[in-house]
UniProtKB/TrEMBL annotation:
Lineage: superkingdom: Bacteria
Keyword Phosphoprotein carried by entry: no
Organism for this UniProt entry: Streptomyces ardesiacus
Keyword Transmembrane part of the UniProt annotation: yes
UniProtKB keywords: Membrane, Transmembrane, Transmembrane helix
Protein name: CDP-alcohol phosphatidyltransferase
Residue ranges, annotated region (Disordered): 1-29
Transmembrane segments: 52-71, 83-100, 107-125, 161-185, 197-217
Length: 592
């Protein structure tokens, strides 16, 4: 019989490794086993060090996750007592993770941790926005403002610092999301490794939470049982939904205009022949007049300037307007004041400027009896909104001929901007009177260095300010110091008001009418927590008929409004002004 020799497969070599995609061959598996073996060996050789590392990692993970769950959305609420509470989300998450097998548990923990990290980033943004703008961060509208913030830092303390700050902020956001995801996975694995004890602990925590919630138990004035993270997420969601709903509602509101169809001949007939100037003083808020730190200096300036104007034949009436914005976003205040619409976010601003709603400035242009001009030292790039405002000519930062130094964010001192306005437009002989919108920027944060007044004949091309800027306070010395910021802010308001009223005293005529106001309050660090959104507004003229027309407004005589002077929403000013000076309503849209 033939002998049958059994077939024996030769030993496998590395060249025989399977080439199926995604299937590791022996070499990678051996390498992995080797690394794991080395890791186990290190832990075996240094058990105490390994134990310390594990415990520190676990403690850090627990602190990070619990801190993120309990983090409040405002700096004012950032107190130790806020972190001595039991978050319901932690109890629920622990129960869910204990119920899942290894793979889904890790995936769920990583996803929940990443979501918690993203929520923490939003909470930090809320803190910053509340501190500066008096409101939380809007996921739909506010991303563009982050670039404005970078530009502000660059203008205040330099481009390199702004670049590093931007890189650091992005890195911090990414790091938070990654670390909270890893921390959640770490805690999930710890729960699974001690399943029975973890289950008993979760049950006890749930019992304590429900008891504290039912009895409203508090420590240091805050409830022990909390759903802080859930409420924060819900607030963000509501903010998004409300924003999306508001877009359509505001578009319909903007279509209705009490004076939208009024013929030019019937607009402001009582101001025919007058040069009318609407001037915005950056960050000139109620706090400048009433805060104990700023009020004495600002009050003396307003009293002195009221007296000086009276000697020159000018008289004033002053009241309060509630601005649509706070701490920044000046363009929202400008558009609210001039359009008669409540423009309190970027979406509304885009909607209204894309339409044909009548602005107060455009009303003068529509008559055909005024030349309309904008003096915009803060504008440094294309500004298509000029057409919507009805401005025939706009002088931006590059068009005013300034050759001096910048004063932090402000491109030029207010006194220079006003002297340039006089040279380029107000002082020229013209066939028609002038209507001007002037935006003064020297009182823009960080309020350092603040210019000082020079002789009007010395202003020239601005070179005179070289030494003044160099010897001034540095922005970096003020920007993080609340007390110093208040002092310098008060000085900047005194400078801006003095510049504007001296310009009127020097160049105003019997036919000059000045309306000036603040666009918003300064940031909360200066105006104080819970400060109102009120700003002062004044009408100044030589012609007594101009002020007689607003007698029924019951405003205070002089440049300083009384504490109990009338307070109107800023959006109401346009219609009141047009009515006071003889305009006839012809509604359009929903107001037909």
């Amino acid at each position: 019989m033939p002998v049958i020799t059994p077939f024996r497969r030769p030993p496998r070599t590395a060249d025989d490794a399977p080439d199926t995609p995604g299937t590791p061959g022996p070499a990678p598996l051996e390498a992995l086993r080797s690394r794991l073996a080395h890791a186990r060996a290190r832990r075996t050789r240094h058990p105490r060090a390994a134990l310390v590392v594990r415990r520190v990692t676990t403690a850090f993970s627990a602190i990070l996750v619990l801190g993120a769950l309990l983090l409040p959305p405002t700096l004012a609420a950032l107190e130790p007592s806020r972190f001595a509470r039991i978050p319901a989300e932690a109890v629920v998450a622990a129960v869910l993770l204990l119920c899942l097998p290894r793979g889904p548990r890790r995936a769920a923990a990583a996803l929940a941790g990443a979501a918690l990290g993203a929520l923490t980033v939003l909470n930090l943004l809320d803190m910053g926005f509340t501190e500066y703008l008096g409101r939380g961060f809007n996921l739909v509208l506010d991303w563009g403002l982050l670039d404005d913030a970078r530009s502000y830092v660059a203008d205040s303390v330099g481009g390199a610092a702004a670049a590093w700050a931007a890189v650091g902020a992005v890195a911090l956001a990414v790091l938070l999301v990654v670390l909270t995801a890893l921390a959640a996975v770490r805690l999930g694995e710890l729960l699974a490794a001690h399943r029975e004890r973890a289950a008993r602990g979760a049950l006890m925590a749930a019992t304590v939470w429900m008891t504290c919630a039912a009895l409203s138990v508090q420590t240091f004035g805050v409830p022990v049982a909390t759903t802080n993270a859930s409420r924060a997420a819900e607030a963000q969601a509501h903010r998004v939904v409300d924003t999306l709903r508001d877009e359509a509602a505001f578009a319909r509101e903007a279509e209705a205009d009490r004076f939208g169809a009024t013929p030019g001949a019937e607009l402001v007939p009582d101001l025919r022949g007058k040069d009318v100037v609407f001037a915005f003083v950056e960050s000139y808020g109620r706090s400048a007049i009433e805060d104990p730190v700023m009020a004495p200096g600002v009050g003396r300036t307003l009293d002195a300037r009221t007296g000086a104007l009276a000697e020159a034949g000018f008289h004033a009436r002053s009241g309060w307007l509630t601005s649509a914005t706070y701490g920044g976003s000046s363009w929202l205040g400008h558009s609210t004041f001039l359009s008669g619409l409540w423009v309190d976010n970027q979406q509304r601003y885009r909607t209204v400027t894309a339409g044909d709603h009548l602005t107060l400035t455009k009303a003068f242009a529509k008559t055909g009896d005024w030349d309309t001009v904008g003096i915009m030292p803060g504008v440094r790039k294309a500004w298509p909104e000029a057409d919507w405002y009805g401005l025939d000519t706009v002088y931006d930062a590059s068009g005013l001929g300034y050759r001096g130094p910048r004063f932090s964010w402000s491109t030029m001192p207010d006194q220079y901007a006003l002297e340039a306005f006089q040279r380029l437009e107000h002082g020229r002989k013209r066939a028609r009177p002038l209507m001007a919108e002037v935006v003064l920027t020297s009182s823009h944060q960080p309020w350092a260095p603040v210019p000082r007044m020079v002789g009007w004949d010395e202003v020239g091309d601005g070179s005179v300010y070289e030494g003044i800027e160099a010897s001034g306070v540095k922005a970096s010395d003020v920007i993080t110091d609340s007390a110093r910021s208040k002092e310098e802010y008060g000085r900047s308001i005194q400078y801006s008001v003095t510049s504007l009223t001296q310009w009127l005293e020097r160049y105003g005529t019997d036919d000059t009418v000045l309306v000036f106001l603040g666009d918003h309050q300064p940031i909360a660090r200066v105006s104080g927590d819970g400060a109102s959104r009120d700003v002062p507004v004044s009408v100044v003229a030589r012609d007594p008929k101009v002020l007689d027309a607003i007698d029924d407004w019951h405003w205070t005589e002089g440049l300083k409004p009384a504490h109990d002077a009338p307070v109107w929403r800023m959006s109401s000013f346009r219609d009141r002004f047009l009515t006071a000076y003889g305009s006839t309503p012809h509604p359009t849209g929903a107001g037909d």
